[in-house]
Structure formats: structure tokens, C-alpha cells
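With this grant's support, we have settled on a layout for protein records. An illustrative entry appears below exactly as we store it:
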Amino acid sequence: MIEINLGNPVRAKIVSAVIGQLSDGYWENSPKMNKYWRFARVEGIILKCNDERWDSGFSGKSEEDIKSWFASKLKTVVQEEVGNNKSGWSRDNMRISDYISYNNDITVSHCYECYDWLKGRTGHTYAFQLAENQPEYVKFKTTITNILKNSCKDLDWIDTEDLNVWIESIIAYYCSYHSELTKGGFNDKCFDDIDGKLGTEKYEFAWPRTGAAAEILDKALRSNSNYYIEITQKQGLSMNPEDCIKATYFEQIRPKIFEGMRKVLTGEGD
């Protein structure tokens, strides 16, 4: 098994979408792609390619080969959507890619950054990064980050790599809506729409799996098991450590995030 750390949740979502295009989208009627999508998956921010099966398209391929292969497929899909020209396939194009996005959160500019990274190219500037350097965006992101990190600390959760991957996936998810939330001032309709997407978040975040969740909750479960029994029952979930994290997020952490986002978006408390 070849495991490739994609570096962040946005690239992970993009590569996962490419795998989806191989099986059910752009290449759904191409049997020659079966040997690729059947042996590739993204878990968290890790791309896992089974190179051990004789019928796998990744057999005998190096990590660099695989990254370059996914880069070419990503470019093909996006160019099919926006065109192979300077205004379409461009680092400056902030058009949402319907072929790649799950929730209108991935632009062509994001896709180009992922393409460059997969190709090993550095030193470029992307339109989405320029937007993210604006003070309003930085304040928005900082607010969400502080709420998440402080909540985990207050809950006595153990700081692990899996916990930080989960935190980063939540930050990326909400920050992807910043431009829409601030369109024409505070877009309260968009805010309410996001607040109503509980089901979506169950699939968008890099939830720690059982073993990783048990490590994160180790001290908390031993010292405050009654709390987790109460909130999991309230959320209709089990006492599996993964469900304990989900219940805590939906019951306690998520309301704080939305309260913090509303304040920073409306300027309340400034």
C-alpha cells in the first residue's frame, strides 16, 4: 500500500473527487479506469493506493508516478468544465468547479494549486490565497480556530495528529463559505443554510476513527464517562469513541462555532 500525505483537507477533497470522476463521473463508461478507482481511496488527508494487487493500475508505480497521474486526471476534468485557455484553466480563476466541489467550496484556483503540488511545482500565487490574506478572512478563520482548540483543551482531549487533522478539516469547511457569507455584507440566509447542514458535516470532516478517537478521549472518558453517556444518548449515537467525538461536537462545540462566526461576521462586540 502506498500512502501519500496530501498536506491539507482541500487537496484531499479534490483528489477524492477525482476518484469519484473515475468511477461515476467523467470516466464512468471507461472500463480501463476500473484498475485505478477500485484501488484508491482518501482517508482524512491520506491518499491510499493499493499497489500490491496484480490487477491494480498502481502496481509498480512510485509515489511521484501516482501524484503525476492524479494531476493529469484533475487537469482533464477541470478543463472539460472551464476550458483549456488562460481564463479557464488558471491559477486566478475563482469560479467554483461543479465537477470537483461537494458544497460549492472548491474553485479552479484551488484545483490548480493541487495540480501544481502533485506535479512538485512551487513558487506560484493563487487567487484563493490572496482572498485568504484579507484581514476579515484572517479574523474569521482565527475565531473558528480558537473556539475549536480551546474547546478541545477544556474537554481535556489529548492533542494528537488525528485531532489536529480533524480540526483543520472543520476550519477549511467553514472558511470555504467566507466569501458567500460576506457577500453584500452579512449574508444571514447563507448563514442559516450552513447551520442547517448537519448531515453534510458528518461526511465533510476528517473524523478520527475508533482507535485514534480512543487515544484522543483517553483521559476524558476515564474522568467524565457520565457526560459522554448523556450526550451520545441525546444524539442517538453509541459510546464508541468516534461517536463520542461526534456527539460532543454537535452538542457542545458546533453551537460555539456558530455563535463566534455570527459575532465576527456582524461585527458584534467590536
